[in-house]
Amino acid sequence: MQDKPLFILVALSVLVVTAILMTGIGGFARGGTFNRNNGNRLMRWRIIAQAVAIGLILLFVTVRGH
């Protein structure tokens, strides 16, 4: 049961990555000033959030394995 908070944190991090990705794709599809001003920034934030999510997943697998 000790890994339940970690699982919730992993799930939230995956949802954050998904939300950032969908916002970036939506902005890219529409184009315009939002995409010009925020497109690269959103994709950078996605990469950072994705790295954190992968780290948390690996930590979860490690904790769960023991």
Give the SSE map:
Blueprint: H1 4-30, H2 32-65
Protein name: HIG1 domain-containing protein
Transmembrane segments: 6-26, 47-65
Domain HIG1: 1-66
Textual characterization of the structure:
The protein is elongated and about 50 Å long. Helix 1 (4-30) packs antiparallel against helix 2. By secondary structure, the protein is mostly helical. It has one domain (4-65). The chain has two helices and no strands. Helix content is 92%, strand content 0%. The mean pLDDT is 91. Residues 1-66 form the HIG1 domain. This is HIG1 domain-containing protein. Keywords: Membrane, Transmembrane, Transmembrane helix.
H-E order: HH
Number of strands: 0
**Counting H and I runs of at least 4 residues, what is the number of helices?**
2
The number of domains: 1
Helix content: over 70%
The proportion of residues in beta strands is under 5%
